[in-house]
Structure formats: structure tokens, C-alpha cells
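ok so I'm stuck.
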Amino acid sequence: MSLPGPLPGGKQGAGYRPPARLLRVLAVVFSVATGLSLVIVGLDLFIGRPAAGDLFIAALNTVAAVVLWRWDKASRRAGAG
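replied:
not stuck anymore, here's the structure
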């Protein structure tokens, strides 16, 4: 198997960053998902259901949101968006 060539526009795979607007949209989506996941955890606790799975999903959403916000901030600081 051979290594992939450069991406269209001369971008290399390892150094490619998506557009800043896309990062912001994804960061907002995962932030909202985090909030809603925490609401579901609260409802689970209120009605007496186990909340472990929902806590796990909330944690994953939180990690994704933090990474995307930091990536967005770095791309704006670099002048890419």
C-alpha cells in the first residue's frame, strides 16, 4: 500500500486543518450536545435510572468540544479564519 498523495490545493494530509468556520460549527454542536447530555443525566438521576452510559457520552462530548474550541482558537490566532 502506498502513502496518499497531497490533498487538493497543495495541502498535505498530516498538516491539514479544516476551515475555521467548520471548527466553530462543530465546537458549538458538541457544546450543545454536552449540555443536553448533562440534562439527560439529571433526568436519569431524577427518575432513578443508572446514568453511567449517559455520563460517558457527556464526557466524550465534553472532550470533543474542548478540543474543537482549542483548535478553533489556534486557527484564529494563526490567521486562518
